[in-house]
Amino acid sequence: MAEDNHNSWVEYDIAIEVIGKMIAEQIESLNELLDSFNRMGFKAGDEAILNDQAYRQRMQQIAFFKAEIDSIYSEKDITALLSKVQNVYAPYIKARMQLQKTRSMPQSLTYETV
Known about the structure:
The structure is a single chain. With 114 residues, the protein is mainly α. Helices cover 78% and strands 0% of the residues. The protein is built from five helices and no strands. The longest helix is centred in the first third of the chain and has 32 residues, at 8-39.
C-alpha cells in the first residue's frame, strides 16, 4: 500500500480491523440462524437454508465487507471507504461494544448512585 494523504498503512490496518469486526458480527448472526435451523432438523446445505432470505442477506453482507477489505488492499475508492469506516462502522462497533459491556456488568454497577 502506497503512502498517500491517509497516514500510511496504520490507518488502512485499523480500517481492516473495524471491517473485520463487522464481518465477525455477521458470522455470529449467521451461526445463530444456522443453529435455529439445526434445532428444527435442517442440515447445512439444505435448500430451505440456502433459499432463506435472512441466510442470503447475511452471506451477501459478509461478501460485501470482504470486498471492502480487498478494496483497501488495492486502494480502490480508499477515501470514501475510510470515511465510511470512520463515520459509520467504527461508531456502530463502539456502540455495540459499550452495550455488551453494560450487559455484562452486575446490575448494581450499571447505574450511578447519588
